[in-house]
Integration host factor subunit alpha
Amino acid sequence: MQTLTRAGLIEKLYSHVGLSRSESAKLLEDVLEKIISTLEGGDSVKVSGFGTFSVRRKGSRVGRNPKTGEEVVIEPRLVLAFRPSQMLKNSVNEGMMKKAARKG
């Protein structure tokens, strides 16, 4: 399994787009900052063909401390959600099926 990192994304921009490494880093940081500021403002971010990032409110609920079994009130909070596009789902499923077929 391979983890995609900022450095990896910068390297892909550098090699595929032809920007310098510093320009690639600046471009990536600008895009990520725009996504973050949009989410902080309460708006969704839709990347066509990839998916939608949004902030959702979760209400208060009663949970349980796993160590003691004691009931605990979990305060309302905001959570980040991602909903993949159908194109992304199909692509991932096809890729996984091809990988499984090569192994089996």
About this structure: Residues 21-40 form the longest helix (20 residues). The domain at 1-43 is CATH 4.10.520.10 (HU Protein; Chain A).
